[in-house]
Amino acid sequence: MTPDTSPKASGGTATDVNVTLAEADELADLRVEGTPHPGRWIAIAIILVLVAMLGHTLVTNARFEWPVVQHYLFNDFIFGGVLRTLELTGLAMLIGILGGIALAIARLSENPILNYISRLYIWAFRGTPVLVQVLILFNLSALFPRLSLGIPFGPDFVSGSANTFLGAFTAAVVALGLNEAAYMAEIVRGGLLAVDPGQRDAASAIGMTRLKSMRYIVLPQAMRIIIPPTGNEVIGMLKNTSIVSVIALPELLFSAQIIYSRNYETIPLLLVASIWYLLMTTVLTLAQTRLERHYGRSDRSTTAGMGAWALFRTVRSSMPKRGAAQ
Amino acid sequence: MTTPAVPLLRARKVRKSFGHIEVLRGIDLDVCSGDVLCIIGPSGSGKSTFLRCINHLEKIDGGLLMLDGKPIGYRRRGNALRELKDRDLATLRSQVGMVFQHFNLFPHKTALQNVTEGPMRVKGISPAAARKEAEQLLERVGLGQFGTKYPRQLSGGQQQRVAIARALAMHPKLLLFDEPTSALDPELVGDVLEVMRDLASDGMTMIVVTHEIGFAREAASNLIFMDGGVIIEQGNPSDVLSNPNHERTKAFLSAVL
């Protein structure tokens, strides 16, 4: 409930006026009324007008070209782009999560070298734009024309041109994944640090090694803290994959761009891409909500997870006429 | 201690510092099998730190602790002591049970799973066998029907009794209690103390850091008063509590009794 700060000049029951005992008895029988919030009604009215204007233009402005949108929405080429976006997201997040766990453990380890390397990595990858990282990795062949796997300064087992190893797709996945690892490292580290140190003590006291304690006691508890922000990272990654359109990788956005560079239907095709992005992020958000519920975070409700229905109920329950809410 | 038995635990000149503060300044102590040793003393006297050193949750800076003839946490290498590897430390700790002030139950596991966790993950006992014994242990601490409950569904006293069952499941040679009733509501203290009294009369070797002077008087075979990182006074509990020799013991007892 919002605290009542509105002045009560009228009515004569300002808080500094003393109430006689007889009046108190009378007051005690009165019904409690909700505080009126005229500001909310004004806000709702303004928003309704804006929504109506938006709706009107969506319907009447022929330049949206909804038939074109409809035509390309299930186009095979667009669909291929959607699949590639999902592949990129999945693989980059896999690298990001595994790398993040490794970096977080290195950062928390007692080994000063590992600790330092982990900080250095996070500093470098968070300190430069992911777009630049994608471009550098894509152009790595300029720096190292040949890549090889073998004994350092010794014989090679496999070697070949950098361009064959690092095509656009590999470069994109690796760059997005390495960048994500830096962010995931901080999320995982936060989760691990949030577990009560007494839990490690208790695990040690029953004879668990550090590895067992991490696996069976600390990590399962850290997961509850790690999962919600990781869900946000997945959704962020899904949208971030669009930046690899700069290296001409036909993911969703670049697929749309390829089409509109030929037919000049720029806005309709960007709408097609937007609809697909919205659809995918919606599915992911629903999945995230379910996951959070699974990990039993009901005791700590998050405003980020507040849906439209909950928002509506909050507004309604604080309207002047108090309903069944509360 | 009149019996010339080989002590289960021996502490010699144990020293421990946190930064510049020396919290243990030379502790000498023997605990024989079947002893119940209670440690009392003002907060900051080093009694909890000493307890944590016994299963090497804290590293000591000097002196030596021995359990059953083996140095705790270190092995000799030439003319120095070197810390044991993680795996060897784990083996050592599996022989020493510990009950914490704030219970430290695993919140993502049921009462029964809290008890079976050690036997299954550390000793490799089959789930069925571990479960059977865990049920018996929960029965023993008076929580037979609570196996499926999660820690947050239990009262503090019940949680602490699950924690005792969890420690017992490893069949420890020695059981450490770090102020086991300090975080409990007064009416829940009795249940926990009763379980501890039963363990003591069953012959379990116990070291109990406590503020429960009444428990120390009845259940302890030996009582230590610590202050400023040293043992000020030790002996038979009724002697120490009724006729303290040292001024600091007298001052402490008159403040808490």
Description:
The complex is a heterodimer of chains A (326) and B (257). Chain A has 326 residues and is mostly helical. Helix content of chain A is 68%, strand content 3%. Chain A has helices at residues 21-28, 38-60, 66-73, 76-108, 112-127, 130-138, 140-143, 162-165, 168-194, 197-205, 210-240, 252-263, 266-294, 308-317, and strands at residues 146-150, 156-161. In chain A, strands 1-2 form a two-stranded antiparallel sheet. In chain A, helix 4 (76-108) packs antiparallel against helix 11 (210-240) and helix 9 (168-194) packs across helix 11. Chain B has helices spanning 47-54, 86-93, 111-121, 127-140, 156-168, 186-201, 213-219, 237-242, 247-256, and strands at 9-18, 21-31, 36-40, 62-67, 70-71, 74-77, 80-83, 96-99, 174-178, 206-209, 222-227, 230-235. Helices cover 36% and strands 26% of the residues of chain B. In chain B, strands 8-9-10-3-11-12 form a 6-stranded mixed beta sheet, sandwiched between helices. With 257 residues, chain B is α/β, with parallel strands linked by helices. In chain B, a hairpin with a 2-residue loop joins strand 4 (62-67) and strand 5. The model of chain B has no long low-confidence stretch (mean pLDDT 93). The interface between A and B is medium-sized, with 19 and 30 residues.
